[in-house]
Specification:
The complex is a heterodimer of chains A (about 160) and B (about 400).
Chain A lengths: L6 H10 L6 H12 L4 H11 L3 H10 L11 E6 L2 H5 L2 H12 L12 E6 L11 E3 L2 E3 L4 H12 L2
Parallel strand pairs in A: 1-2
Antiparallel strand pairs in A: 1-3, 3-4
Chain B lengths: L21 H6 L4 H11 L11 H10 L6 E6 L8 H8 L1 H15 L3 E6 L7 H17 L6 E5 L9 H8 L23 E5 H13 L1 H5 L9 E8 L5 E6 L2 E2 H8 L4 E6 L5 E4 L7 E2 L9 E6 L4 H15 L5 H19 L6 H15 L3 H16 L1 H5 L1
Helix pairs in contact in B: 2-3, 5-6, 5-8, 11-12, 11-14, 12-13, 12-14, 13-14
The chains are: A alpha+beta (about 160), B alpha/beta (about 400).
Chain lengths: ~160, ~400
């Protein structure tokens, strides 16, 4: 099964060790590398850590940030929990949808952006808020979102 | 106005001592019993929300027979309306490390971990830099207690202590049966102290000020101060450190927008207090406890929408392991939708309240058990908004 593509897995295993306790850091490392964990990645990790593929799959699919299907280069997660919702989350999502021409849950055809809604990001005092990959943006307005996204679109 | 203002406290975010890690260096020279006695005297209770007496937790873990023990700082801050731990870790991380190290000394642990929620990954570069400084300092004073950071990956349930251990061990974040409690069987099945970020800072401040001075703040049941995360319909959202034991009406006077209809105390898993009860509600362990989340709602808000948002949250964040929670959250949401649409009679709400109460006694962990807190307090106090 192992191919040259999976060098990064051997690397991560080397970095964190061949223990079950390393599983989360390894999975997080794969996400950092390529934004989603493929079936092949999971099988490979299982082999390296001497676990069953089902165990790795079980852990990977439990966590909302451990994506197991292809995602865009930039994952936009808009907070939909109560205070962000009260302060205009819907308009923010609408603005992003209009700009990227996708619906929440979808990825742009060029695989650059994925738009998701997520639970509380911990910016309740400055809502609405979103993450782009790991970077937080708060106090959003449609204008602000427009500026932020335009910058990413030109990256 | 200024003399009626709630007293601001500057304990948690106050400046570091002049000499780097001075309080820690001084404290570890004292005996573990002395430290525990001070903690007991201070009356400190955990700041994550549940309010377990910190001294007791530490003593039980210290007494547990094991060569291998752990200290874990729970920074998986996920409760809607809470953002204080991020602020603490950003502004005074050294206080957190010091509190953990004191715990390590008291219970005889060789290693500490901070479990940081994935949503706060952006804190890592700064935090790692501070942590390197700590680890170096610990070594220089002969303290064998390195601290590491582990990241979560977007699961609210991992703030539940046993789910957090599972996650650190590489498993799905599914809570364990209790007992055994972490004091005897926590991370890797070893005795573990797990405390909230703010609790560790409080420990350090008690060591610095002494328990007598710490006790001057707050009330008999709720000693000390608390960092509150204030959000919702308020002109001044943000982080405030206030004394525990304050009456809710004074809080609303200060933070409300003049039209506050309800305050959600303790986040989605806490209680919703309607206007008519502000006067008789005390914020603290003797009244309505909170991990710090205070969300204000004014009369323009539909409490149906608020509750519906909470239920969607719980439905998604339920780990799905036990039936009362997995199915219960879903049925509560569908239930209020059906009543709202008129598919079910308003009497059906009573049945839903019973379901929520059953979840309280049958769900495996705090998530499922606490859904009834917000559900019942909102449905009971705002029944007409659920129906019409």
């Amino acid at each position: 099964m192992a191919t040259n593509n999976n060098n990064y897995i051997a690397e991560l295993v080397g970095q964190y060790g061949k223990n079950r306790t390393s599983l989360m850091p390894i999975l997080q490392g794969v996400i950092e590398k390529k934004n989603f964990i493929s079936d092949q990645d999971m099988t490979e990790i299982a082999k390296e850590l001497d676990l069953s593929a089902a165990q790795v799959y079980g852990t990977a699919t439990f966590y909302s940030f451990l994506e197991t299907q292809p995602r865009g280069q930039y994952i936009i997660r808009v907070c939909k929990t109560i205070t962000c919702d009260m302060h205009g989350k819907k308009t923010i999502v609408q603005t992003i949808e209009d700009m990227l021409k996708i619906k929440a849950g979808e990825t742009t055809p060029n695989k650059k952006f994925t738009l998701l809604e997520t639970n509380c990001l911990g910016w309740c005092h400055e809502g609405p808020a979103m993450l782009i990959n790991e970077k937080p943006y708060s106090g959003l307005t449609p204008e602000k979102v427009h500026d932020i996204l335009s910058e990413y679109m030109h990256k | 106005m200024s003399d009626t203002k709630l007293k601001r406290v500057d304990l948690i975010f106050g400046e570091y001592s002049n000499v780097k890690y001075k309080v820690l260096t001084d404290t570890i020279k004292r005996s573990s019993d002395e430290i525990l006695d001070d903690l007991l005297e201070s009356g400190l209770r955990g700041r994550g929300g549940a309010g377990f007496p910190t001294a007791m937790k530490w003593r039980l873990t210290a007494q547990a027979p094991s060569e291998e023990k752990y200290v874990i700082c729970n920074a998986d801050e996920g409760e809607p309306g809470t953002f204080k731990d991020r602020e603490i870790l950003t502004r005074v991380p050294r206080k957190v490390f010091s509190g953990m190290a004191i715990c390590g000394k008291v219970i005889g642990a060789q290693r500490g971990y901070i479990y940081l929620r994935g949503e706060y990954k952006f804190l890592l570069p700064d935090l790692m830099k501070e942590l390197d400084g700590y680890n170096e300092h610990a070594k220089s004073i002969g303290l064998n207690f390195p601290i590491e950071i582990r990241l979560g990956s977007g699961a609210y349930i991992c703030g539940e202590e046993s789910a957090l251990f599972e996650s650190m061990e590489g498993n799905r974040g599914e809570p364990r049966n209790k007992p055994p409690y972490p004091t005897t069987s926590g991370y890797m099945g070893k005795p573990t102290v797990i405390n909230n970020v703010e609790t560790f800072v409080n420990v350090l401040m008690i060591m610095r000020l002494g328990p007598i001075q710490f006790k001057l703040l707050g009330t008999t049941d709720s000693r000390g101060s608390k960092v509150f995360s204030v959000s919702g319909d308020t002109p001044i959202p943000g982080i405030y450190e206030l004394e525990l034991g304050m009456p809710l009406d004074r809080f609303v006077d200060e933070f409300g927008d003049g039209d506050t209809k309800a305050v959600q105390v303790g986040g989605a898993s806490g209680f919703c207090v309607p206007r008519k009860k502000f006067k008789d509600t005390v914020i603290g362990f003797e009244g309505v406890p909170t991990g710090g989340s205070m969300m204000l709602f004014n009369s323009s808000r539909s409490m149906f929408n608020v509750l519906h948002n909470y239920l969607e949250f719980f439905e998604e964040e339920s780990c799905g392991q036990c039936t009362p929670c997995r199915v219960g959250c879903q049925q509560l949401r569908k239930g209020i939708e059906a009543v709202k649409k008129g598919d079910k009679k308003s009497l059906y709400l009573d049945q839903l309240m019973k379901l929520a109460e059953s979840m309280k006694i049958t769900a495996k962990c705090g998530l499922g058990q606490s859904v009834a807190n917000s559900f019942s307090s909102i449905v009971y106090n705002f029944k007409e908004e659920m129906i019409y």
